[in-house]
């Protein structure tokens, strides 16, 4: 049920640009709950929303870095790597975090 609610919020954010920032911040709170299933689903949402609205990245950038250890599913990891690569100029730690993925 929790994953489905995250997917619905993502769909709304993608269809209604005027509420996308508010929904992204709401999804960020799910991401920070330290519940792996929510964090993984939220990471997929970040990928989709930030692909369409890249200017919203600063609103969630710190959380993405700070709570990345809760990501443990393949598709979510791919989304995190995409975010790190795409926004690497805005994330000082990006090369080091990407190196962690290579080592693991």
UniProtKB/TrEMBL annotation:
GO biological process: protein transport; vesicle-mediated transport
Main location: membrane
InterPro entries linked: AP_beta, ARM-like, ARM-type_fold
Subcellular location as annotated: Endomembrane system
UniProt KW keywords: Membrane, Protein transport, Transport
A single cellular component GO annotation: endomembrane system
Name of this protein: Clathrin/coatomer adaptor adaptin-like N-terminal domain-containing protein
Source species taxonomy: Eukaryota, Metazoa, Ecdysozoa, Arthropoda, Crustacea
């Amino acid at each position: 049920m929790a994953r489905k609610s995250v997917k619905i919020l993502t769909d709304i954010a993608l269809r209604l640009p005027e509420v996308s920032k508010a929904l992204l911040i709401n999804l960020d709170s799910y991401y920070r709950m330290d519940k792996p299933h929510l964090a993984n689903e939220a990471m997929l949402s970040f990928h989709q929303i930030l692909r369409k609205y890249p200017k919203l990245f600063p609103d969630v950038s710190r959380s993405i870095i700070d709570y990345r250890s809760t990501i443990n599913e393949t598709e979510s990891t791919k989304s995190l790597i995409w975010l790190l690569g795409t926004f690497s100029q805005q994330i000082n730690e990006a090369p080091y975090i990407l190196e962690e993925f290579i080592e693991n």
